[in-house]
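@channel sequence for tomorrow's demo:
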Amino acid sequence: MTEFTIASFNVKNLIGPDQEYYRFQSYTPEEYAWKSDWLADQLLTLDADIVGFQEIFDEATLREVIAETDRRGKQVNAATLPDRSKRYHRKAIFRKLVYTPYTDAKLAYAANTNDHDTPGKRRPGLAILSRTGFVEPVEIIQDLPLPLDIPMACLGGEDDAGYYTLRRLSRPIMKARIPVADQIISVFNCHLKSKLGEFITPLGAPYAPETVLTAYDASGRAMGALRAALRRMAEAWVLRRAILDELEQDRPVMVLGDFNDSEDAVSSEIISGETPFRNYSWMLRHDARHSGDRYNPDEDRQIREMIDRVRLRSAEKLFLKKSLRDVVYTTTFGGVHQSIDQIYISRHFDPEWTGAIGEMQYFSVFNDHLTDGSHPEAPYNKLASDHGQIMAHMRLETAE
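structure tokens (generated this afternoon):
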């Protein structure tokens, strides 16, 4: 039996000092020192075996944070772990207190192809840190080999209603094959398009008219939100297609990252797959010839198995089924608390499936640092992350 942890960590704009990442936004040396100090402490607290990072502008800066985390971890070990001369050094508590450095870990970084190093117009990438390394080069999905054309249809008719076309994702998706004991797990790290509206700047204009809030255009801003939602859902489908490639080979899958939407949102359901009904025998067949033409019991079992084998489970929801004590949220703004950072797992880790190879033991949420964005004086809004970190504690059955 092997235990491991996997975490999702949106660091909120990790970049070195005096570099303008977004318009008029940069860190002073003092602000950067505070942020990197906080990140190292948070990563030390997580102490996760696999970490998916979002909003990384610079790989070298992330490596500095990891190195500082290790330095602090070794200091903690020296102070808290008794040597063999102490008769109590075998106590179980000390196995829980030990920090494992990332000295031999592997880090994979995916730069954003939309990032051209232009000050004020930077675009962040992602990274995956793995203590057990990778069994093959990490795959990065962003520029699509063929454009994704999503055909639309006119309801009530056969007329062609055009296409929504996606050629490039707003941020990369990472797929890593990670060895854990005698298993290899396909881990996806993502950061889908945010809910911020997409506005089009007319040719020759300095900015999009919808951004002029003193001439508020409600209809135009709603269209911007529509564009953002379309992009987010299309990106979710691209991720889903990659997930299915793994599940159809019966590979264990874990998906983590900033989904920028709640667990019950359409984009999240696209990623996880649909939940099967408990019974399809009541449903009219697709080729029904009369009102009683329903799916038979054998077809009912077949349908539910076909859906379930490619469906992902929410680690958060599995945790809440175990415990009613905690309320999970990873963002808070204007008094609204939401979970938009997720960890999804395939049925290989669902104890209710007879073929499970492991299960989740616990689900940790590190959100004490979150402050409500309605208070502009809150210092964490800029320097710490505006996301809570989440971590699944997994147990894997291994061959004796």
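heads up for whoever presents: The chain has a mean pLDDT of 89.
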